UniProtKB/TrEMBL annotation:
One biological process term in Gene Ontology: regulation of DNA-templated transcription
Gene3D superfamilies: Winged helix-like DNA-binding domain superfamily/Winged helix DNA-binding domain (1.10.10.10)
Residues in OmpR/PhoB-type domain copies: 32-133
Stored InterPro entries: OmpR/PhoB-type_DNA-bd (IPR001867), Sig_transdc_resp-reg_C-effctor (IPR016032), WH-like_DNA-bd_sf (IPR036388)
GO MF annotations in UniProt: DNA binding
DNA-binding region per Swiss-Prot/TrEMBL record: 32-133
Protein name, entry field: OmpR/PhoB-type domain-containing protein
The entry's keywords: DNA-binding
Keyword Transmembrane helix: no
Length: 134
């Protein structure tokens, strides 16, 4: 199939083509800079988390994991995926699973009023965790 354009539009088309070529290889990042849910606020630029109007200090890893999970509420992240997010490793063992468990446990203690009955970080038994908004 051949598409023909009027010759007078050729400079405009060439200009558009050059603009597209300059964007080639440039990643356009469209993630939200702030995430708001009832009682929960996360600011990516300031790396700040607020729960019930109070700022919650987090480590860099805790913030990074929470930010990924909060962008996709309801999505289940397996232990292996969380380990990959923490360490960048694809080959994860039992020791790394334990590290993921400890990180989520630490996040719960900081975010939740009742860590044993989490409002935000829900366990999917035998699989991993998900960020939920109750």
């Amino acid at each position: 199939m051949v598409i023909e354009f009027p010759e007078e539009r050729l400079p405009e088309i060439c200009s558009f083509k050059r603009k597209l070529q300059t964007l080639e290889g440039v990643k356009i990042y469209m993630e939200p800079q702030q995430i708001r849910y009832p009682g929960f606020f996360l600011d990516m630029l300031q790396r700040k988390v607020m729960v019930e109007e109070k700022e919650v200090p987090l480590t860099a890893r805790e913030f990074d994991i929470l930010a990924v999970m909060a962008r996709h509420p309801g999505r289940v992240y397996t232990y292996a995926q969380i380990c990959h997010l923490i360490y960048g490793e694809t080959d994860v063992g039992e020791e790394m699973y334990s590290s993921a468990y400890c990180l989520i446990s630490s996040l719960r203690k900081k975010l939740e009023k009742e860590p044993r009955h989490p409002r935000y970080l829900d366990t999917v038994y035998g699989v991993g965790y998900r960020f939920e908004i109750a």
